[in-house]
Specification:
The complex is a heterodimer of chains A (about 110) and B (about 110). In chain A, about 0% of the residues lie in helices and about 55% in strands. By secondary structure, chain A is mainly beta. In chain A, strands 2, 4, 5, 6, 9, 10 and 11 form a 7-stranded mixed β-sheet that branches. Chain A has a 4-stranded antiparallel β-sheet with strand order 1-3-8-7, with no helix packed on it. In chain A, a hairpin with a 5-residue loop joins strand 7 and strand 8. Chain A is globular, with a radius of gyration of 13 Å. With about 110 residues, chain B is an all-beta fold. Helix content of chain B is about 0%, strand content about 60%. In chain B, strands 2, 4, 5, 9, 10 and 11 form a 6-stranded mixed β-sheet that branches. Chain B has a 5-stranded antiparallel β-sheet with strand order 1-3-8-7-6, with no helix packed on it. Chain B is globular. Classes of the chains: A mainly beta (about 110), B mainly beta (about 110). The interface between A and B is medium-sized, with 22 and 22 residues.
């Protein structure tokens, strides 16, 4: 158990819908990262937040957005869902926001878009 | 764009044989991290290398960061069935974080 929690574990929805994935980082960690893992794309970095502020942005689509709240939990919002958005979404956390930080991954949310 | 490739994509070894996965980046990385993901699990941090040419060992695992900080390798000596999983390298370039394509290791008992 990494100490990072993600809800829900599974999510099944239809194309065009909007969903929210939630992540609670390890106690004391200020950074949260979001990743998308699909069979053909591997692990894709989406976005990083550090202490409530966006720190780095990766391959995140405009239909996706995220935020980190004052209690440091984070939410990833996916809208206008397409079949290709079906994937495993991981959240990770680290103590700091810089480059040399070990990331602790949550168990992931499996999203299926029908 | 920036890419971090790993080879091989898949590797099947007999238990007791050695295994190596190679990680190559198109640009210089600030650091390299290695993660292991068991089937059905989430990535778990193994190690981080920061210095050019750095070598670190963890029991049967040896990690190396290239002199140019654009490549890295993970070598496992005498594989065991518990080594099964996908091994990812990951590195930072600027404020972007890139994961390698992963090497899936199968160990045949």
């Amino acid at each position: 158990d990494s100490g990072v929690t993600q809800t829900p574990k599974h999510l099944i929805t239809a194309t065009g819908q909007r969903v929210t994935l939630r992540c609670s980082p390890r106690s004391g960690d200020l950074s949260v990262y979001w990743y998308q893992q699909s069979l053909d794309q591997g692990l894709q970095f989406l976005i990083q937040y550090y202490n409530g502020e966006e720190r780095a942005k990766g391959n995140i689509l405009e239909r996706f957005s995220a935020q980190q709240f004052p209690d440091l939990h984070s939410e990833l919002n996916l809208s206008s869902l397409e079949l290709g958005d079906s994937a495993l979404y991981f959240c990770a956390s680290s103590v700091g926001g810089g480059r040399a930080n070990e990331q602790f991954f949550g168990p992931g949310t499996r999203l299926t878009v029908l | 764009g920036q890419q971090v490739m790993q080879i091989p994509q898949y590797q099947h070894v007999q238990e007791g044989e050695d295994f190596t996965t190679y990680c190559n980046s198109s640009t210089t990385l600030s650091n390299i991290q290695w993660y292991k993901q068991r089937p059905g699990g989430h990535p778990v941090f193994l190690i981080q290398l920061v210095k050019s040419g750095e070598v670190k060992k963890q029991k049967r695992l040896t990690f190396q960061f290239g002199e140019a900080k654009k490549n890295s390798s993970l070598h496992i000596t005498a594989t065991q069935t518990t080594d099964v999983g996908t091994y990812f390298c990951a590195g930072r370039a600027g404020n972007q974080f890139y994961f390698g394509t992963g090497t899936s290791l199968t160990v045949i008992p």
